Automatic annotation (TrEMBL):
Amidohydrolase-related domain sequence ranges: 263-422
InterPro entries per the UniProt record, alphabetical: Amidohydro-rel (IPR006680), Metal_Hydrolase (IPR032466)
Designated name of the protein: Amidohydrolase-related domain-containing protein
Superkingdom assignment: Eukaryota
GO molecular function: hydrolase activity
């Protein structure tokens, strides 16, 4: 297998010097341990394509094409599609050319081009992005559809626990027609959530849970919530549900923290990992509360539960690396920085991950979502970043080439296969 795009010229001497490392980094099969569904063909244009480049929203997204990382991504996609960006220095024009080319491709062909030589073996899909009813689910492909993009792997599912909790609450609330809620709702909800999550873990395609508590109320997750605080949160949710035609969004700290603790307990008993969004995200997060350092007491409370810190916790990568180094049950994903962060930033992230993190606890992901190009850029840039950082360590004689090859194999495939029981 070879990558579709032309490699930067400065890679040639390193490739000649370390051919085994080069070939492994660029061709070894990869397990994408955290991604999201692609849009259906009928919905391929419902979201602005610039979302490929940034978590920004609204008018702020218009500036995304002017980042260094976006300029690099434009060159890589032009190479992928075989189109020229010569003759223009205007960033808007470059992206219009790319969008025009992809729009002219039949959707299955677009997906094929992006995945054909990416070397993604298996995808673990969090299909809760976009929420429950009325969200993006009707506009995206089911997780098993993505089997057509990988060979010979089989797509697996990651369950977003907040979405499941919201659906349980929606069903409970539907049986009441007036206020106030009876006190029995809280134990009913907790029991149903435990039973539901436990049942889900028995499904052969479900290999992990995920929490987005970072977005909702922050990673400073309490170790206990008072019954009064939990009932107050349920009452607040009920009032919104009752007044706003069934709307439910779990964003009350006591209840959110309780959902996380329940999920960690079930996951520990059933032997599956729990992923946590950390760091890099849209404006829903409060950045100071997105560092996984806040999770240290929680990690200690659930030592039997494997915890996967997502997105290299950017910009708190060193915090995440410390946790993965000192706690047996913590693992570190280094996704989403591809393609959101510049190449220099990506190399810095990989280097910071390697400062402390045991290399048997490092997992790659694309955080691919909506557009097939997000998967391609996620794997292509990660492969280049790994090769460049590890070849430098070999040059400095901190690693042998064989050791560096093993690091690549573990980060791309072996560690995820072990952590998720694939």
């Amino acid at each position: 297998m070879t990558l579709l795009t032309k490699l930067p010229a400065f890679f040639a001497p390193l490739a000649d010097k370390f051919p085994e490392l080069y070939n492994t980094a660029l061709t070894y099969p990869a397990i994408d341990n955290h991604a999201h569904p692609l849009l259906r063909a009928s919905a391929r244009d419902v979201l602005p394509f610039e979302g490929l480049l940034s978590e920004a929203e609204g008018e702020a997204m218009n500036d995304a094409i002017y980042t260094v990382s976006a300029r690099k991504a434009a060159k890589e996609l032009a190479e992928l599609f075989g189109i020229s960006l010569e003759g223009t220095t205007d960033e808007e024009d470059k992206w219009e050319r790319i969008k025009a080319h992809r729009a002219a491709l039949e959707y299955n062909e677009l997906c094929r081009v992006c995945f054909a030589k990416a070397g993604i073996h298996t995808i673990l899909i969090d299909d809760g992005l976009g929420g429950g009813p009325g969200g993006m689910a009707s506009k995206t492909e089911g997780y098993r559809w993505h089997d057509t993009l990988t060979a010979p792997g089989r797509t697996k599912r990651i369950v977003r626990v907040e979405v499941e909790a919201e659906e349980i609450l929606r069903n409970i609330f539907a049986s009441y027609s007036s206020t106030p809620l009876p006190t029995s709702v809280l134990p009913t909800f907790e029991a149903q959530l435990i039973d539901h999550l436990t049942t889900l873990t028995d499904h052969p395609d479900i290999v992990g849970f995920k929490s987005i508590v970072c977005y909702r109320t922050g990673l400073d997750i309490s170790l206990e919530s008072s019954e009064d605080a939990l009932r107050e949160a349920l009452d607040a949710l009920w009032n919104v549900y009752y007044k706003e035609n069934g709307r439910i969004r779990l964003a009350h700290k006591a209840l959110n923290d309780n959902v996380v603790r329940i999920a960690l307990g079930v996951a520990g008993e059933k032997g599956i990992p729990v992923q946590f969004h950390t760091g890099l995200g849209d404006t829903d997060i409060r950045l100071p509360r997105s560092s996984p350092a806040h999770m240290q007491p929680l990690i200690e409370r659930f030592p039997q539960t494997r915890i996967v810190i997502l997105h290299a916790a950017y910009p708190y990568t060193r915090d995440a690396g410390y946790l993965a180094a000192v706690y047996k049950n913590v693992f570190l994903d280094f996704g989403e920085v591809f393609p959101f962060v510049s190449s220099a930033g990506q190399r810095a992230v990989i280097s910071q991950v390697l400062e402390l993190t045991p290399t048997n606890k490092i997992l790659w992901s694309s955080d691919g979502h909506w557009w097939p190009e997000s998967y391609y850029l996620g794997i292509y840039q990660a492969r280049l970043g790994l090769f460049e950082v590890l070849s430098d360590l070999v040059v400095r004689e901190e690693l042998t080439q064989d050791e560096a090859v093993k690091v690549v194999q573990d980060a791309l495939y072996n560690n995820s296969a072990r952590v998720y029981g694939l």
